[in-house]
Design goal:
Blueprint: E1 5-8, H1 15-26, E2 28-32, H2 51-56, E3 59-60, H3 73-89, E4 93-97, H4 101-109, H5 119-132, H6 134-144, H7 146-151, H8 157-170, H9 174-180, E5 191-196, H10 199-216, H11 218-227, H12 242-249, H13 255-278, E6 283-287, H14 291-304
Parallel strand pairs: 1-4, 1-5, 2-3, 2-4, 5-6
Helix pairs in contact: 1-14, 3-4, 5-6, 5-8, 6-8, 10-13, 11-12, 12-13
Amino acid sequence: MAGTIVVLGPTAVGKSELGIRLALAFGGEIVNADALQVYRGLDIGTAKPSAADRERVPHHLLDIHDPRQKFSAGEFARLATAAIADIKARGGVPVVVGGSGLYLRALLEGIAPMPAPEPAVRAWLTERLDREGLPALYRELAERDPPTAARLMPNDRQRILRALEVAVASGRPLSEWQSAQPFGAARVTATRIGLTLPRSVLYDRIAARVVHMHARGLAREVQRLLDAGVPADAPAFQAIGYREIARHLRGEWTVEQALAETVAASRRYAKRQETWWRREADVAWFDAVDLDGAESDALAHLDSAGFRRV
């Protein structure tokens, strides 16, 4: 029976193209594992696969969620597991592609038990957010749960509120819950292919990608979302590029400042992704400087793992 392939790595490394090539080689279909490509209307800034790419290979879990609503790792794992089962039932090979480490770990290793949401605590924290501001709540999180605060961005409203909610409601910090049982029982067994680049090359690619996104109309895309009623504090606007361009559209930054901040934030994100992936076991890493060479090596690796080309 066909197995599952996972293509992972930092942003702008070439995952989407390699995923398509591997899917074509093995009769596969792509399952998106990018936390932001699930949102409708976020196309340019998330480097969402084009219509032509989707014609080359079927894609799943794209454009499935309202940008106003939260989308969780647990929900992703549930939907991705169903998509993988459907692809396999039709005799295909699932190729999971994305750089969202938490989403992939949730899919491959399951979700740890966590306290249920506490509406009363969340309402109290939301009222405090309106009164005191997010920086104050972030400082409190840093006191209550330093490990969690260290891995979150200071403007990550959604995750800061959830971490404080867990700490207040349960009396235990989120990091303690996660260290006690980081993930649940294994869900999906997969062969993992990782792409890597020298840091300087990756950073240059990120800068070039941001310039290309701007030329394609990222600012117009952000304005369309705002005009459609997506609030500036919506979960989707936590996406790098969208929050920066939104500040430009509000007159807080010039477009040059917004693009420079987007490049800087993307580089920081890539560095965090690389740190995350270094902790992952059983990843076969290939240098993406020459994507054709990486493809050839990845194909040979998958051949040896028992995958059969079409």
